[in-house]
Task: inverse folding
């Protein structure tokens, strides 16, 4: 999704400037062309040569350079997106105030490309009402902002202000380059991950679902402007702070949470791998070793089936079906039996992987989608909303 895309990276004088090196490297490895503008203060913290060596592209630091073209205009016109990472309180304030007194602020002023600011700073700086007012003013004008993460800050304080994970910035950039905010304020419910059914306090029945497909859908919908609620089972990766998440563990907990949230949502996508069975009599004490053991199981509630019964005309319900045989045939049966609008049928061997291959089936469509799960998530959203 970034191949041959032209990214103008603005690096400002924040302590997280070194983290922008990883970002530049990842963009480059994904096939993007990355040109960098560094402010004078950024050059105090990290050398321009680092970015030049990693991106194999020019790094510009001065506006008035006798050998250069009129860089602020040529770079502003060249860029398909401008990513300011890290963005200091200073650069945000300058742009909000219409100040263009160095190469980066002037290029931002001159570009018509989308601009994404990735603020990172001390918590008191970030919470300063002047900074917040500047962010709010620029957001209303169509500039994009990524929220900093909470955690231990370089200045020794704990709180919101950390530079986000490189992956999260890449997800945003991929979406802004390829999509508009076409899902603005649409309430979307997504379930993801595996459930766990306790046998005793130490042991449980679960499955190989990692939750990656559901997370990819939740991220993609959120970045496209949807109001996403994620009901998470056991998920192997970190859930980003920006997602509203309800944590569950057992099939019964997931059933209750989903039934409660379902009426408030226009689109519900059930990617979670919910256990079909649960131990009939889970033991309160750890089960002792014996020569033989028979575990009695009972059926859990079929969440998709129950949602299908409750679904109104205004709601869209999407299921996922992992199958090991007769994939399409079984998926089509489920689509009908459970009153779904769409079903994504996939092979069992994609669980836990970053890549996937699915057949997306609706009443009038049957499309094969493949690629990394974030890419496929966007294609699924396209098909649901087309
Ligand atoms: C070691 C050091 C670390 C800094 N880290 C940050 C930071 O994380 N965020 C921030 O907004 N300012 C930070 N500053 C302050 C900025 O460098 C200062 O506001 C500067 O004027 C920013 O200029 P620029 O936006 O043109 O790069 C830091 C300053 C120093 C000396």
Result:
């Amino acid at each position: 999704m970034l191949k041959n895309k032209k990214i103008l990276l603005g690096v400002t004088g924040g302590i997280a400037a070194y983290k922008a090196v990883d970002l530049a490297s990842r963009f480059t490895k994904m096939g993007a062309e990355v040109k960098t503008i560094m402010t004078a203060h950024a050059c105090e913290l990290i050398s321009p040569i680092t970015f030049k060596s990693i991106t194999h592209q020019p790094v510009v630091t001065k506006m008035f350079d006798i050998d250069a073209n009129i860089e602020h205009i040529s770079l502003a016109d060249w860029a398909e997106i401008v990513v300011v990472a890290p963005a200091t309180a200073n650069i945000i304030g300058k742009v909000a105030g219409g100040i263009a007194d160095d190469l980066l602020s002037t290029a931002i002023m001159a570009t018509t490309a989308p601009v994404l600011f990735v603020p990172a700073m001390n918590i008191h700086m970030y919470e300063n009402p002047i900074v917040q007012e500047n962010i709010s003013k620029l957001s209303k004008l169509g500039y994009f902002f990524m929220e900093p993460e909470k955690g231990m800050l370089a200045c020794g304080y704990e709180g919101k202000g950390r530079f986000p994970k490189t992956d999260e910035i890449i997800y945003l950039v991929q979406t802004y380059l390829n999509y508009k905010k076409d899902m603005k304020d649409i309430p979307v419910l997504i379930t993801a991950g595996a459930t766990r059914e306790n046998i005793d306090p130490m042991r449980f029945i679960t499955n190989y679902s990692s939750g990656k497909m559901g997370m990819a859908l939740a991220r993609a919908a959120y970045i496209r402007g949807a109001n996403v609620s994620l009901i998470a089972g056991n998920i192997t990766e970190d859930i980003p702070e920006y997602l509203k998440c309800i944590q569950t563990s057992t099939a019964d907990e997931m059933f209750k949470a989903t039934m409660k949230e379902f009426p408030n949502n226009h689109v519900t996508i059930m990617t979670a791998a919910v256990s079909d069975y649960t131990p009939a009599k889970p033991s309160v004490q750890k089960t002792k070793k014996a020569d033989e053991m028979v575990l009695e199981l009972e059926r859990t509630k079929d969440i998709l089936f129950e949602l299908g019964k409750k679904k109104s005309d205004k709601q869209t319900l999407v299921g996922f079906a992992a199958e090991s045989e007769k994939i399409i045939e079984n998926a089509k049966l489920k689509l009908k039996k459970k009153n779904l609008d769409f079903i994504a049928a996939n092979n069992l061997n994609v669980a836990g992987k970053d890549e996937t291959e699915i057949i997306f089936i609706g009443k009038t469509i049957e499309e094969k989608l493949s690629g990394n799960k974030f890419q496929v998530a966007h294609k699924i959203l396209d098909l649901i909303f087309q």
